[in-house]
Write a sequence for this structure.
């Protein structure tokens, strides 16, 4: 629900910026036609840019460059238990 609200707010703010930057008065029919054209153009640019961004993110190399193995040290309690078992078998 929050994501939907963010999307609606983003689209609404985009519309407000288009109206204010172009000094459009939407009660006039010619301004309404201009607004529809500008808003559609803006939406198509947002869509195209999101596709490009997604493509770049997918093509990034997210794995580390090295093939080093990580050596994990065992806790002391396990080492002591192994030593006790080994001493008991001797």
């Amino acid at each position: 629900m929050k994501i939907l609200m963010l999307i609606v707010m983003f689209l609404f703010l985009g519309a407000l910026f288009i109206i204010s930057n172009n000094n459009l008065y939407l009660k006039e029919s010619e301004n309404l036609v201009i607004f529809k054209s500008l808003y559609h153009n803006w939406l198509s640019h947002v869509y195209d840019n999101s596709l490009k961004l997604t493509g770049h993110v997918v093509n990034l190399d997210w794995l580390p460059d090295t093939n080093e193995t990580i050596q994990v040290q065992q806790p002391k309690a396990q080492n002591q238990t192994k030593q006790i078992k080994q001493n008991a078998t001797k």
